[in-house]
Hints:
Layout: H1 2-20, H2 25-52, E1 64-70, E2 74-88, E3 91-95, E4 100-105, E5 112-113, E6 118-122, H3 125-153, H4 159-184, E7 187-189, E8 194-199, E9 206-207, E10 212-217, E11 222-229, E12 241-246, E13 251-260, E14 270-277, E15 290-307, E16 312-313, E17 318-326, E18 329-343, E19 346-351, E20 358-362, E21 372-382
Parallel strand pairs: 1-21
Antiparallel strand pairs: 1-20, 2-11, 2-15, 3-10, 4-6, 4-9, 5-8, 6-7, 8-10, 11-14, 12-13, 12-15, 13-14, 15-19, 16-17, 17-18, 18-19, 18-21
Helix pairs in contact: 1-2, 3-4
Amino acid sequence: MNRNLATVFFAGILSLASCGGENDKQAQLDALKEQQASIQKQIEELEAELKAEGKTVAVQQKTVPVSVTTLAQDTFRHYLEVQGRVDFTQNVLVSAKVPGVLTSVRVERGDRVTKGQTMATIDAQVLEQNMAEVKTRLDLANVTFEKQKNLWDQKIGTEMQYLTAKNNKEALERSLAALQQQRDQFNIKAPISGVVDEVIPNTGEAVSPGVGIIRVVNLEGGKIVAEISEAYLDRISKGDQAVVYFPDLKKEVPMTVDVVSSFINPTSRTFTAELRFRNGADVTLRPNMVAVVRIEDYKNEDVVTLPVNLVQKDEKTSYVYVARKQDNGYIATRKEVKTGLSYGGNVEVLNGLAAGDMVITAGYKSVNEGQPVVFAQNSLTQK
Length: 383
């Protein structure tokens, strides 16, 4: 029967070739397609008849070229990724202690200052006039006391005169000391040693207590502050390892969670975590610099991991295709797997695979159960 079909098929080709030549190629193509459809229909009818008679039609599966990876035990890590910012333990916005008008600003952005150094001064003319008056009165009181003391030592005069002169002198000394302390408040001094990061007002502008005018930052003791959703409160603890990436610097450094706040912000429903460098780092940080924080919140050692795109799913389960040796070749075998968490494009496999399994990584969508496979050149990799 098959020989007759082939004869008809080739006879049609010869007939078309002899009749049309090269001038009617489209007609030849249409006729060939009709012949092909007719033959295919007859083949299907014969296969159906054989199947009805209980006979099977052997279908030879083609060999599919694939790439495979041999699995090995690995450590799977999952990270919680949030955005943070750079902060410093000593980051002070200095304000004036008394209201007034600035007479001088002695620092600029970037200047290094030491603790107690005067950075700006406020007009204290009225106070200085009072101090000058008290100094004049104190000078007179000192002369009066010395003379009265000499007389008292010679038993001349009364004790009351001596005590009055002494009291006047000491009272003026205390008044002058108090005025000097007040005068010192008109000098705006650095409360810490560090670098001037911001100078807000200019000379001649008015300042008042509680309004910051100069920011001083000690660039030692930098830390990262991150706000984390309360849903992760039980997964983050002090001592957790983390990796922090600074987009502006294009650097990634290891850090450790140092503080986990127990307070949850009622507005944002977040808690604060602070991270510090493990052993110091060669990174120049700036206040409020953006940082991408990845805190390790899960770790599973000696587990098989896979690229998440290799895991296929149907209505009931997840599975992958592995290459299994059979006779002198390999066939594709479907293996059901149980997966866990995924991160960074990889997923942990809790069940179904073991070290040494050869997972098909390329061509897995073109194979079926039991289909022969051949490894593409240089396709065998170790994972």
